C-alpha cells in the first residue's frame, strides 16, 4: 500500500463578472483567481485491487460532506481512469480533513478533486506535456474551477473559468481577512437568482488588472454580492 498526505488549497476571486449566457446553458464570466494558504488535508491510501474493478472509499471529519458518487473526489477518480483507460484496478481510500468552508466560494470541493487528479498523474506516471489538453478537459468535466487548482497560480480566467492567463506579476500588498458567516451558497441557486435580462452582455474589464490597488478596486466587483448579502 502507498500512502500520501497532501494539502488542498483554497482560492478567492478578485472580481467575478458574468458577461453573457451561453447556448449550452452555462455563463461566460471573467474573474481573477488567487490561491490562499487556507487548506484541507487529504490522506490517500492506494493499492492494487484483488478484484477486476476499482473501489473508492471516502471518509471525512465533517458529517455534512457527501461521501458518495456526488463527491468531486469520487468523480475525479472515476473520470481519470476512464479518460486514461487505466486497465489495472486499484483500491483507494481518501480521508478529507476539511477546513475550507463548504459553499463559501473558496473552491474547496474543486481543490480536493484537482488534488486527487494531481496525485493520480504522479502515481500512475502520466506524462503531463503530451497529455496537457486531455488533463485540462478531464478537470473541466469535473467542475469549472478545477483547472485552476491544477496550477494554483494567480490568473485571469474567462469562459466558464477554464480559459486562463497566468498573471506572473500579480501581487497583493495587503493582509487578507476571510470571514465565514456559516452560510452555504449553492452555485446553481446563485446563477438562478441573478435574473439578468435574456440577451444581456458585458465587455470584459478584469483582463486589464495586473494588481490590486486603491485606484482599481471599483472594477473588482462580484456580481453575486447583492443576492448573497441579502440572503
Give a structural overview.
By secondary structure, the chain is of the alpha+beta class. The chain has one domain (2-230): 2-Layer Sandwich (Ribosomal Protein S5, domain 2), CATH 3.30.230.10. Helix content is 25%, strand content 28%. It has 6 helices and 6 strands; from the N terminus they run βββαβαααββαα. The chain has helices at 72-83, 108-123, 132-142, 146-151, 187-193, 225-230; strands at 2-21, 27-48, 55-60, 90-97, 155-159, 163-166. Strands 1, 2, 3, 4, 5 and 6 form a 6-stranded mixed beta sheet that branches. α1 (72-83) links the parallel β3 and β4. α1 (72-83) runs parallel beside α2. The longest helix has 16 residues, at 108-123. The mean pLDDT is 92.
Set out the fold topology.
Elements: E1 2-21, E2 27-48, E3 55-60, H1 72-83, E4 90-97, H2 108-123, H3 132-142, H4 146-151, E5 155-159, E6 163-166, H5 187-193, H6 225-230
Parallel strand pairs: 3-4
Antiparallel strand pairs: 1-2, 2-4, 2-5, 5-6
The general outline is: globular
Helix/strand order: EEEHEHHHEEHH
Helix share of residues? 25-40%
From the 3D structure, determine the CATH topology.
Ribosomal Protein S5, domain 2
Low-confidence stretches: none
What is the number of domains?
1
- CATH architecture label name: 2-Layer Sandwich
* Strand proportion: 25-35%
- Number of helices in the DSSP assignment: 6
> How is the biggest beta sheet arranged?
6 strands, mixed
- Alpha-beta content class: alpha+beta
Cα radius of gyration in angstroms: 19 Å
Name the CATH class.
Answer: Alpha Beta
The overall strand count is 6
Give the distance, in angstroms, between the N- and C-terminal Cα atoms. Answer: 47 Å
Amino acid at each position: 500500500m502507498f500512502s500520501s498526505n497532501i494539502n488542498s488549497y483554497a482560492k478567492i476571486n478578485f472580481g467575478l463578472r458574468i458577461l453573457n449566457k451561453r447556448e449550452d446553458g452555462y455563463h461566460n464570466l471573467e474573474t481573477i483567481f488567487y490561491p490562499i494558504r487556507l487548506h484541507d488535508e487529504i490522506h490517500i491510501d492506494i493499492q492494487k485491487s484483488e478484484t477486476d474493478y476499482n473501489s473508492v472509499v471516502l471518509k471525512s471529519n465533517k458529517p455534512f460532506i457527501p461521501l458518495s458518487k456526488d463527491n468531486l473526489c469520487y468523480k475525479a477518480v472515476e473520470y481519470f481512469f476512464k479518460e486514461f483507460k487505466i486497465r489495472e484496478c486499484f483500491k483507494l481510500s481518501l480521508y478529507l480533513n476539511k477546513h475550507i468552508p463548504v459553499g463559501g466560494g473558496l473552491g474547496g470541493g474543486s481543490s480536493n478533486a484537482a488534488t486527487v487528479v494531481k496525485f493520480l498523474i504522479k502515481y500512475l506516471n502520466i506524462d503531463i506535456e503530451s497529455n496537457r489538453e486531455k488533463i485540462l478537459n478531464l478537470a473541466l468535466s469535473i467542475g469549472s474551477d478545477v483547472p485552476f487548482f491544477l496550477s494554483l497560480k494567480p490568473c485571469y480566467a474567462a469562459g466558464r473559468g477554464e480559459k486562463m492567463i497566468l498573471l506572473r506579476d500579480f501581487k497583493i500588498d495587503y493582509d487578507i481577512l476571510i470571514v465565514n458567516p456559516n452560510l452555504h451558497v449553492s452555485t446553481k441557486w446563485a446563477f438562478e437568482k441573478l435574473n439578468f435580462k435574456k440577451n444581456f452582455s458585458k465587455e470584459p474589464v478584469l483582463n486589464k488588472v495586473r494588481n490590486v490597488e486603491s485606484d482599481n478596486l471599483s472594477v473588482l466587483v462580484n456580481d453575486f454580492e447583492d443576492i448573497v448579502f441579502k440572503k
